[in-house]
Design goal:
Elements (H helix, E strand, L loop, with lengths): L2 E9 L2 H7 L14 E2 L5 H7 L4 E4 L8 E9 L2 E12 L5 E3 L41 E8 L4 E7 L22 E5 L3 E5 L7 E6 L13 E6 L5 H9 L6 E5 L6 H4 L1 E8 L2 E8 L1 H11 L5 E6 L6 H5 L28 H8 L12 E8 L10 H4 L3 E4 L21 H14 L18 H4 L4 H4 L5 H10 L1 H14 L4 H4 L8 H10 L11 H13 L17 H4 L3
Parallel strand pairs: 4-8, 12-17, 12-18, 13-16, 16-17
Antiparallel strand pairs: 1-7, 1-9, 1-10, 2-6, 3-4, 4-5, 5-6, 7-8, 10-11, 14-15
Helix pairs in contact: 5-7, 9-16, 13-15
């Protein structure tokens, strides 16, 4: 059985109609011979053209493709001709070669397409701007499950009574009258008829076996650098095509998250359209790809006002866990009404919005920042809360030395974190500890050019700056945060009374003398830890050459 799965439609305007009949062409010849596809998202057009042949664009710096397909005449499938969609200089797509001589037969007089009025001499005229001729003229191209395209048109001031209602076809006769309808939740039989190509239809039931199950909401929390982002990549998803990653902050708003109405220029007019945010974009992907899991990653979820940012989407966070439900496990238990989301995701603004079972939300949160914005109980109870342990198990550079010292990163962390926990009842606390991935492997590397190159040379400056990465990051954190109120008990403040002197001394000293910036007890604890966790001098790692791009991903 042949079903309709996509419908491209666009209202014909006076400029289009002139092109189709070669009216008002420049005296010198030439002129435009294409129909605009402006106002329709490029992604929707490319999706519609999935079965077309692809070729490279001839435009300079244009990375999008040209799409060509053989389209039958709707209602007269014995005729067919090629239709080509081409990108227009980094902006919209257009249907090219649509003039009197080259236009598709579906849009010719012999197949019922309207013609312009004629003047006293019997010639076509554009006088009156074709009023009464194209007021309701819309071209359509239907795509079917047989990978066929059918071109036609409709000339009506409303949806014909014989057309099925409630499945999204109403969009053709609403608003700007242009777009792509995706009939993903409806199986509607194709009939080769110009006036009504729609046969019997049925709404697809979201049965258990048709969509990946297990959608959930998870908050990963831990000390800064414990590896929350690493956990997401290695335990949940590393495919960027199935993820949207964003960061909450105090100025982040509902409109950034869900989407907002923005002005755009269409046909030299300013109109207002809904521009989807990351939540809505990923929801659309998840809905249209039921065989794959999709993940919305919200870094620093408590650094923004999460309940306000989620808005009514908050209601969707309750998930179905009953196997007897009509919906797959992980689907939203409740629905919300949001016309803008529904229009983008389902192509039907009247449809209720629900999170599908293949859509998960993962938030991250530093325990030391838990009071930036309080996540209230009603919000938190809808999430699975998971602590990311601060561990060096399977850590790639745990035993690499800090610069030119004999102290490994693991040994240093162990001594510092023990001190933080020992002072838990004073100013520091468990969530002030150094995370195993607080730094990257690059921060540990000793660049010996600082001692070998001429002082002040470019090589020396680069090495000096690189060697300062560890103290600038770690010592600053310990001074400003972890041990903020107990400097004399941690640092050798009699000799180095400021953070500036401490960092300068650490940078100027060599080997284990760098640690003399700490008081005697902590310095001894660091060196004792170095004996428990000896350094790994494997020349293949811990060098400039061995550092990979993965180290930056390990910092959270």
């Amino acid at each position: 059985m042949e079903y309709i799965d996509r419908i491209f439609y666009r209202k014909i305007n006076p400029s289009d109609f002139k092109k189709l009949y070669d009216l008002d062409k420049p005296d010198g010849g030439g002129g435009q011979t294409y129909l605009e596809a402006a106002g329709i998202p490029n992604d929707d057009i490319v999706d519609f053209l999935e079965y077309a042949e692809i070729s490279d664009s001839t435009l300079r710096e244009e990375t999008r493709y040209i799409y060509t397909f053989n389209a039958y005449v709707l209602g007269n499938s014995s005729e067919r001709e090629f239709i080509t969609f081409a990108p227009r200089g980094g902006r919209n797509y257009r249907i090219i070669r649509q003039n009197v001589r080259q236009k598709h037969p579906a849009w010719r007089l012999e197949n019922g397409f309207p013609e312009p009025n004629r003047n006293a001499d019997g010639e076509y005229t554009s006088d009156g701007n074709f009023e009464g001729v194209i007021d309701n003229l819309i071209i359509m191209i239907i795509r079917t499950t047989y990978k066929k395209y059918y071109a036609g048109f409709i000339n009506s001031d409303g949806m014909p009574t014989e057309w099925p209602v409630g499945i999204g076809l109403e969009r053709i006769f609403e608003g700007e009258h242009r777009g792509v309808i995706k009939l993903t939740t409806v199986k509607i039989t194709f009939i080769d008829s110009l006036t009504c190509p729609f046969g019997e239809y049925d709404v697809v039931t979201p049965a258990q076996g048709t969509r990946v199950q297990g959608g959930t909401n998870i908050i990963l929390y831990g000390v800064p650098g414990s590896g929350k982002s690493w956990t997401i990549e290695h335990e949940y998803c590393a495919d960027e095509d199935r993820m949207e990653r964003l960061v909450f902050h105090p100025d982040y708003m509902y409109s950034d998250f869900i989407g907002q109405i923005l002005p755009v220029v269409r046909d030299e007019k300013v109109i207002y359209e809904f521009s989807p945010g990351p939540f809505t974009k990923l929801l659309k992907k998840a809905y249209e790809n039921p065989d794959k899991n999709f993940y919305l990653i919200v870094e620093e979820i408590n650094r923004g006002n999460a309940p306000a940012i989620f808005g009514e989407v908050f209601q969707l966070l309750d998930r179905i866990d009953d196997e007897e439900s009509d919906y797959p496990i992980g689907t939203s238990e409740y629905t919300i009404t949001n016309n803008n989301i529904a229009q983008i995701v389902y192509g039907d603004e009247k449809r209720k919005v629900r999170l599908p079972s293949n859509f998960s939300i993962i938030g991250t949160m530093n325990t030391s920042d838990q009071n930036v914005f309080t996540l209230d109980t009603a919000f938190q109870r809808r999430w699975t809360i998971r602590m990311v342990l601060n561990t060096f198990d399977e850590h790639r550079f745990a035993n690499k030395p800090i610069l030119d010292t004999t102290v490994s990163w693991r040994a240093f962390c162990s001594a510092i974190n023990d001190e933080i926990l020992r002072r838990n009842n004073v100013t520091s606390s468990e969530d002030k500890r150094l995370g195993a991935y607080f730094i990257t492997a690059t921060d540990l590397i000793w660049h010996e050019e600082e001692d070998q190159a001429e002082k002040g040379s470019n090589e020396w400056i680069i090495a000096r700056h690189s060697n300062a990465r560890f103290p600038e990051k770690v010592l600053k954190y310990l001074w400003d945060d972890a041990f903020k109120f107990v400097h004399p008990e941690i640092f050798e403040t009699k000799a180095y009374a400021s953070l500036e002197l401490i960092i300068e001394t650490f940078c100027n000293e060599r080997a284990n003398d760098r640690f003399k910036v700490y008081n005697e007890n902590l310095r001894k604890a660091i060196l004792d830890a170095a004996e428990r966790y000896p350094i790994d001098n494997n020349p293949q790692e811990g060098t400039v050459e061995s550092v990979t791009t993965n180290t930056e991903n390990e910092s959270e």
